[in-house]
Amino acid sequence: MRFLFCLAALGAAACAADSSELEAPIPPLSDASAPRDGASTRDGASVQDAANPRDGAPAVDAFSLADASDAGVDAARDSATPVDSATPVDAAPPVDSATPVDASDSGVDAARDSATPVDSATPVDAAPPRDAADAAPAPYAHTIAIDGVNDFTAAESFATSTSGYTLYVAWDAAYVYFGASGNDVQTTAAASKWWLLYLGGPVASGGSSAGTPYNTQAPALPFPAHWHVRWKTTNDYTSAFSYGGSGWGDAGVSFANGVFRGTGNNFVELRLARATLGNPASLRVVSAFINEAQNTEATFAGAPASTFTDGYNPAYTKAYLFTFLASPAAATVIP
Q1: Which of 73, 90, 108, 275 has the fewest Cβ atoms surrounding its Cβ within 10 A?
Q2: What is the CATH number of domain 154-334?
Q3: Are strands 208-210 and 332-334 parallel, antiparallel or unpaired?
Q4: Which whole number is the average pLDDT over 100-129?
Q5: SS3 at position 202
Q6: Distances in Å between the alpha carbon of 15 and those of 8, 12, 60, 243?
Q7: Helix, strand, coil share (%) of the chain residues, nearest 5
Q8: What average pLDDT score do residues 198-205 get?
Q9: What is the pTM for the complete model shown?
Q10: Phi and psi (nearest 5°) for 9?
């Protein structure tokens, strides 16, 4: 009896429970039992129907979330700003030529971008046109007119061992020009006086270190001389000797129009063709005046000024070395 009573009691309770469950109203969407994350249905369908359509319930609209469990991910995705099909995704904005590309590179890029733009019309690192003044200078040349007028320059003038006497030297491509000034060049000079030049090319080409005798004077020379030129102060005799290996002999040089003594200026000048001298690249030169008169012989006005001390038959110890690619001002005293 007790068992049947309990079974009957349990059955009534179960039936009551089933009955109450069936009769309970469907809670509204705002109730705590509503779908998670605010999922909704369309056209008034219940949450249950939206998730599991039964008996011809309308299907969930395509715009509804397919699964409420994906609401977190899909909501974030769907809330993103739509991508404009006209703008490439992740495309970097155009770089302004006046603005550094990356602000984080402001140290390097700012300095780079602030540099003055290179003008496309100007070659980068192009060397400026070479100024004509920077070009290699032309070789020295000074043509002297043989007319008795002293037009040698100061750079072509050389002091001698005697005050008041000067040696002059210049050249161009065709000639070497020599000049001398001093009291013994005047028109009343004694017939016993001469202006003498000894010239030498490269030492290896031979020559003589002993000068030509004048009365009892025959000087020793500081280099092997190849040519000897002499002008008599009476202005009536000019000649050139060359050394032929065994002695000095006439070189056969004509000085017609090649020598001239000025009027009233104690100045004389002459020229020698460079071809006559063998076109040497350089020329050694000593110059002096002599007096060959008996009992009054002397040598003076030597050039270089340090070549000797004026007196009787002194030895020449110094010479000028002229290099034709340079200028007379660049002459050196040798040895």
Answers
A1: 90
A2: 2.60.40
A3: unpaired
A4: 50
A5: coil
A6: 10, 5, 35, 160
A7: 20, 25, 55
A8: 79
A9: 0.61
A10: -65, -45
Residues 151-174: pLDDT tens digits? 999 999 999 999 999 999 999 999
The pLDDT value given to residue 98: 43
Residues contacting residue 72 through CB under 8 Å, at least 6 positions apart: 37
Task: Write the CA distances from 107 to 102, 103, 111, 250, integer angstroms.
Answer: 10, 9, 7, 86
Ordered by start, the domain boundaries in the chain are 154-334
Beta bridge partners of 294: none
φ and ψ at 329, to 5 degrees? Answer: -65, -20
Peptide bond into 304 cis (omega under 30): yes
Whether residue 224 contacts residue 200, with contact meaning beta carbons closer than 8 Å, is answered with yes
Mean pLDDT, rounded, of the chain: 73
Q: Within 13 Å and on the Cβ side, how many CA atoms surround 112?
A: 10
User: What's the rounded mean pLDDT across residues 203-211?
Assistant: 82
Closest alpha carbon to 215 in 314, 288, 295, 286: 295
In sequence order, the 6+-apart residues with CB closer than 8 A to the CB of 140 are 171, 324, 325, 326, 327, 328
Please state the φ and ψ torsions of residue 107, each to the nearest 5 degrees.
-65, -50
Q: Is the pLDDT of residue 217 over 90?
A: yes
> How confident is the model over 282-331, as pLDDT tens digits?
999 999 999 999 999 999 999 999 999 999 999 999 999 999 989 999 99
- Residues contacting 334, CB < 8 A, separation 6+: 222, 223, 284, 318, 319, 320, 321
Closest CA to 303 of 173, 101, 116, 166: 166
pLDDT of 265 above 80: yes
Give the Cα separation of 227 and 193 in Å (integer): 20
Q: Is 238 in a helix, a strand, or coil?
A: strand
CA–CA separation, 183 vs 311, rounded Å? 17
Q: Are the C-beta atoms of residues 199 and 285 closer than 8 Å to each other?
A: yes
Q: Tell me the C-alpha to C-alpha distance, in Å, between residue 4 and each of 7, 8, 14.
A: 5, 6, 15
Strand partners, 193: 291
Least confident span in 36-45, 84-93, 224-233, 247-256: 36-45
